[in-house]
Amino acid sequence: MRPSTPTSVRTYGMHERADHLDFDIRFQGARNELTLPHRHAYFQIQVGIEGSSQQSIGGEVRPFGPRHLSFVLPYRVHVIPHPPEALYCIVNFDQRFLWPELDVDALDLEDVPLARHPDLAPFLFQEYVDFAFDEADFARIRGWLDELHALNASRSFGAKTAMRGILQQIVGLACMRQENALMRLSLQHDGKTSQRDALQRVVRYVRDNLDKPLSLTDAAAAAFLSPNYLANLLRKETDRTFTDLVTERRIERAKELLASTSLLVREIAHQCGFADEAYFNRRFRQVVGSTPRNFRREHVVGRLG
């Protein structure tokens, strides 16, 4: 079962959810739990210790229980509603903390070749893989978490270097244990599965809501994206703006209705989401090169001929 579409999805910064701007670790109870779908501008790893739940991430629902890890990419909409008795750990870190040499905007991380940064794989493919560990592996992870917590509290000389090393070991262990699945996803989808899925969700949302007011913010929420990410993705993948996409779909729907129904032009304008007939006529002529009535007349004549 997919999660319901959020009407408003908040984006959090490190300054809102952490005590440090580069790295932070906490166990449950340290801050107010987020129970609604949200996103943040930093990387996150959630670790399930006790108590079973489910995680919603990028429009998919996957199990999250004891000995599970969740790898959350910046700006990916997610939520893990922990039950009252749950014990879990949350690790937040800025991109520059673990990958100072990775000079890529967070919105373009899905374009980074995995051959260059294979340690991004768990974050890119969390929607498709369950990162569950056996007792031996998880004992190692628990030990690493305790070390991270102590180092983060002390912030002594050399602590950051040690913290990076431990964090790399956690991510590396996840990559090794799920090597086959991650390699298969990498080869099949070339790192862009989430982008294609997101665009399909946007197009589906627009198609299903053409008769209603449509905004970039609402469409992004329906696709579990941030508005900035969606605008960037549309420009990169289609060379169009969101307004261009909506107008194109509305005109295509109008052409179908003009050609196949006897609805009045003003009725078609309303069904396609145009505020009034005059505005519809102007936009239709700009895109198609003729008025709606002329298009209908030419279509009928061509069909009869």
From TrEMBL:
Keyword hit for DNA-binding: yes
Coiled-coil features, chain-numbered ranges: none
InterPro entries linked: AraC-bd, Homeodomain-like_sf, HTH-like, HTH_AraC, HTH_AraC-typ_CS, Tscrpt_reg_AraC-type_HTH
Source domain of life: Bacteria
Every HTH araC/xylS-type domain range: 200-298
Keywords assigned: Activator, DNA-binding, Transcription, Transcription regulation
Molecular function as annotated in GO: DNA-binding transcription factor activity; sequence-specific DNA binding
Hydrolase is among the record's keywords: no
Pfam families listed in its UniProt record: AraC_binding (PF02311), HTH_18 (PF12833)
Name this protein carries in UniProt: AraC-like DNA-binding protein
Organism of derivation: Variovorax guangxiensis
